[in-house]
Amino acid sequence: MTAHLKLAPLSTILFVVLGMTLHQCQGQAASQDKNERYAYKTGDPNGIGKWYMGRQIAHVMGYQGMSWLERPEREKEEETSTLFKNMDIQPGDTIADIGAGSGYHVFPMAKMVGEGHIYAVDIQPQMLAEIERKKKSNATFNISTVKGSAKSIHLKENSVDKVLLVDVYHEFDHPYEMMNSIKSALRKNGKVYLIEYRGEDASVPIKAVHKMTEAQAVKEMQAVGFKLQENMSNLPWQHCMVFVKE
């Protein structure tokens, strides 16, 4: 779980990719994990050489790109305010932002939930430290930072009403395990909001490995017991797919 977006639309931002050399198997013959869930083979250089259900997993973005996550044009490019309306955030909601980054979505949601709570989950301590800094500066008390891992969000069972995944799922090193962890943390009638750049749309100015099609997302979510309730089409470049437990 890391920062949300990896490739700046219409910009020349230079990203520093985290060291992922353990996953790189470029130039080697394709091989399988012993459980045959993941495959390793050459592919897009923007990916890590690891494949899941026919999709190559993308590199994550390092905390060095933090300032880009807070860019002033982000609202225009992504219409985050529309995303929040899609989520129907209510006072008292408990929401987990997975791959919370520097907290771009965390702090507006914290205001919306009031007496509710926001879990900001990320694998990079630098990202979590930035959220803690902002919490102190803003005197915000309904946010908890959580250091996740490659296979778990480290939240208690049945602890959240909604889960937000903004342009981060396609980078999960172990997507099957991560979604099972999310499923465990989600309450019975909870919802997962999967936000990904539309892979079906060639006009979206993002590299292919950082996009997902609805069909691919549905296939991967079904593998862990989620079904698509709705795909809202009101964001400029992204899917807003709502998944619930089957």
From TrEMBL:
Residues 91-217 form the Methyltransferase domain. GO terms for molecular function: S-adenosylmethionine-dependent methyltransferase activity. CDD domains: AdoMet_MTases (cd02440). One of its GO terms (biological process) is methylation. The keyword Methyltransferase applies. Residues 1-29 form the signal peptide. InterPro entries: Methyltranfer_dom, SAM-dependent_MTases_sf. Keywords: Methyltransferase, Signal, Transferase. The keyword NAD does not apply. This is Methyltransferase type 11. The lineage of its organism: Bacteria, Pseudomonadati, Bacteroidota, Flavobacteriia, Flavobacteriales.
